[in-house]
Target: FAD-linked oxidase
Amino acid sequence: MSYPDVLSVLLAELGDDIVSLHAQIAERRSADWSGLPGEAPLALLRPRTTADVSRALAICHRFRQPLVVQGGLTGLAGGACTGANDIALSLERMREIEAIDDISATVTVQTGATLEAVQEAATAAGFMFALDLGARGSCTIGGNLATNAGGNRVIKYGMARDQVLGIEVVLADGSVLDGTHKMVKNNAGYDLRHLMIGSEGTLGIITRAVLRLHAQAAGVATAWCGLADYDSVTRLLRRAQQCLPTGVSAFEVMWPSFTGYMFANVPALRSPLDTQHQFYVLMESAGADGPQHQQAFENFLGEMFESGVIENASLAQSQSDAASFWHVRDATAEFPILMPDLIAFDVSFAIADIGRAAQQTDAALRARWPESTVLTYGHLGDGNLHLIVQVPGADAATVDAVESLVYGIVREYRGSVSAEHGIGAKKRNVLGYTRSPAELAAMRAVKAALDPHGILNPGKVLPAA
Model:
């Protein structure tokens, strides 16, 4: 293959409106938020239509040219990082909200649309789009689907894949799979939709999607709770799911290491409680009847206080109160500034194991690196634990040792090395901690069938054979 050849063909067939060469994009970001390095690619493709994407992939397939699709570059696993010999493809021009179907309760979008744009369109039409992430203003629907993003509402609405009825995908050879259906039930053969969602751009490029919408909640009740131990946390979750009329829509758990660090280092934050506890829970429940639901939520908190499940709680009396609670949890966006050399983990365990696994991990890290900062928090209702580690003066060997320790404990508990951020380049070498040799072999077979030349996002997800 000759790079000038593939670039000249791309320019001839797509034009310089779509194809920008290396010298024109040298200052553009070539890496996501993972901290992994990226290099300016050979060229950047910015298609306007699915047909443009199809032609671009057909050319890259013919020349066996590696290609990396990029969304909002907010990923944390290195899945969108490019190398000097890659071509990048961004769907930033394909961001149209095409149609909202009031009867089917769906929205059809091009996948370059930001998550926030889809949320706003749904709200304007009287619906809610359930997927929600802190990076909502920057991340794109394509990236959300490619990584099967999770976020704050998984406990009630599920992961990104659970918000999708149909997708359009362009395969490595330029073939277009139009699966933009609106049916909830569709058992007509293999479900290629779910094969593509979560494949991180290694099997195809998702260009359009039909997304589920939900009714807007009439009232959302929110509380910040202090608890004495992990058993109390799981009891609160279980009882809330059983007793609240609509269960919980968010259940965020924070260890005191996390809250203490945040309140000390982010001046705008204020603690919702004037008491100290071993665990803090940010609990939210959305209901169809605002005043009645708020009263039921308040009664439930009173019962939990009287029975000793919670030690103290602050109930949001307004949207402003609720927003201030969420600001504490969402202050994780400050991490790149506060701890630019942090080591971040996004792992999952069985809910019953999280308390013990977190304690074991925290103790092991502090014992080996006494000067380290270790922060723990997570979406307890779906088993997702986030761990932030900073070791002063850490070199590459130290980072490897920290990752080996943490992922070793994940393996011990038969957890997952990635709960919601994907594998990308960062975790491909530990994918075998979570997936069996037979599963990895099946994944490689799928990759070989759909991308025989291995041009889509090479070096990502699958470990070297």
Summary: The mean pLDDT is 94. The chain has 14 helices and 18 strands. Residues 351-368 form the longest helix (18 residues).
